[in-house]
Amino acid sequence: MVKIYQTIIEKYEKAIFDLEKVIKRLSLFRLASFLISLIVIIALANERLLTLLWIVVPICTIGYFLLLVRYNKIINLSKTTTLLKEINKNELLKLENKLSCFPTGQFHLKVDHAYLTDLDVFGSHSLFQFLNRTTTESGSLCLAKWLSESATKEIILERQQAIQELKPRLEWRQKLQVTGLSFINTESDYQKLLNWFDKSEQLFPKQTRYLIGSITLSISSTVLTALYVVNYFSNVWNLYLLPLLLVLLVNYLISKRVAPLAEEIIDQTDQNVQTLGGYQMLAQTISLEKFQSARLEMLRTDLNQNESSAADEIRRLRKILEAFQLRGTKRSIGNAFYGILNNFWLFDIYYIILTERWKHRNRNLVKSWINAISEFEVLNSLAGFAYSNPDFAFPEIKDEPYNIKFEMLGHPLIKPESRVTNHFSLKGSGRITMITGSNMAGKSTFLRTVGVNLILALMGAPCCAKSGQVSHMKMFTSMRTQDNLEEGISSFYAELKRVEQLLILIKSGQPIFFMLDEMFKGTNSKDRYKGGVSLIKQLSELNAFGIISTHDLELAKLAGNHMKVSNQSFNSKIRDGELSFNYKLTDGICTDFNASELMKKSGINVLDNVEELR
């Protein structure tokens, strides 16, 4: 994959170089054409060759305009090509697991969520950074939602089919991504835009009355102004001054009355006009393509529900709002000419009615359009992820509950050259795998490996495994419980709250897969052992299954002998005073522990005869 992206980058770098030469040439042509045209026009004017002037001026103007159009077209092409190069450079960074430059999605994180905090779904070096190729705020929110909750089997299968169809369409996928990137605006406020769409109309229900009145006043002010100007130079008293002032006063009072509504529209859409441009072009790009999978075709159909397409309707709204933005508000500077003309022709009323008419016509369609575009962006992201990782496999979604099976399972956020894979399977309600192991042997990483791949599987994405089988389930983890000084909560109490949350979730009746890392580590060994045995027994009798990691060999032995528990482990070796880890999961309880050796390496004088001190 590295060679493919490098070849594409080289192609775009050459194209950018060629375009820059064309841009420089066109810049010189523009300057030369302007100077030559100016000299010719001045020369003809001096010679008073009016007939030739009437011919030359339009030709020079049209010629310069065509050069300008060509120049802007090449500039836009250069920007697009640069973005395509950046997209492919970003793919290389993701292949190398260099994710620090990508958005973390931290604001999507919910601290009390069932698994997000423990599995590095959001934040630095996170799954979100690895997957995300969306360009809109709504697309990012959609991806976060998919990462936060599992889909049904039917939806997972539809998504898998859609991703597999998009996966080989590299050029089209990157074209879609560039389309959104061209309109990206960090200042946009997606929720504010949605709120504006939902807000009820004020003038539209009475549009006939407002339009008749505003048109009458506009015509009156125009006619009276013309008559006033015509009669201005006469010696008699200008009879049209008083009626004109009266009409302008009425216009002013009406403008003042609707001004709060006009300003509200502008303020709520100000930073989102560019975002609407992105939605428009994304909708257009999607609508023009043909798809085979049911999910993709359904999304494309959602963008063409009305007499005109979503792209056409959004373009109309965008043009209305771009013109309306010229007005300005108390918080933004507008065009002075708009204010002057508004006093004569009441532009505010026309633009308010135009925007409200658009909302009335499309309110019930807007959310479906945005949802379709957002979902398409997420599917496009996952297709890019699948394309860049061809060895990852789409898991089979089983009807039988309580079922997990992976061959050569690895963590997608670990570089391939460092990644160690393991086989893992767990089947049946109440089944629990106890994983023991020495420090740093890979227990916690393995739990996260299973968790991250289950997230991928249950959102419809390929997993970092040779093959997989997964049933529909909900997941819950307790791995990173911490003190909360602000709320006065100890790590042990925080862990109890997580266990309580798990037990409540299990009572919902849905299949639950849990992962617990070092249970009750914040209390004494006696209570930890007693509480651990009790919880394992309770969980094995409920509609749940899962993995528990522990250092407690006695706990693992007891659970393995008396409950529906299987024991697996990670082991280490000490060779020539150095610790060695292979990170391979083996059957049975751990046979060695390395804590004493690690303590010695840290400078602690570990006593060999500690038992004699009792």
List the helices and strands and how they pair.
Blueprint (H helix, E strand, L loop, with lengths): L1 H45 L3 H46 L31 H5 L5 H12 L4 H14 L3 H12 L8 H9 L8 H25 L9 H29 L3 H15 L6 H9 L7 H15 L11 H10 L1 H42 L7 E3 L4 E7 L12 E6 L4 E6 L5 H17 L7 E5 L2 E5 L12 H16 L5 E6 L7 H16 L3 E7 L2 H10 L2 E6 L1 E4 L2 E4 L4 E2 L7 H7 L13
Parallel strand pairs: 1-5, 4-8, 4-9, 6-7, 7-8
Antiparallel strand pairs: 2-3, 2-5, 9-12, 10-11
Helix pairs in contact: 1-2, 2-6, 4-14, 5-14, 6-10, 6-14, 8-9, 9-13, 9-14, 10-12, 10-14, 11-14, 12-14, 17-18
Number of strands: 12
As a percent range, the share of helical residues equals 55-70%
Which of globular, elongated, flat, extended, rod-shaped describes the shape? Answer: elongated
The profile of the biggest β sheet is:
6 strands, mixed
Low-confidence stretches are: 483-488
Helix count equals: 19
Q: Strands across the major sheet, in which order?
A: 6-7-8-4-9-12
Mean pLDDT: 87
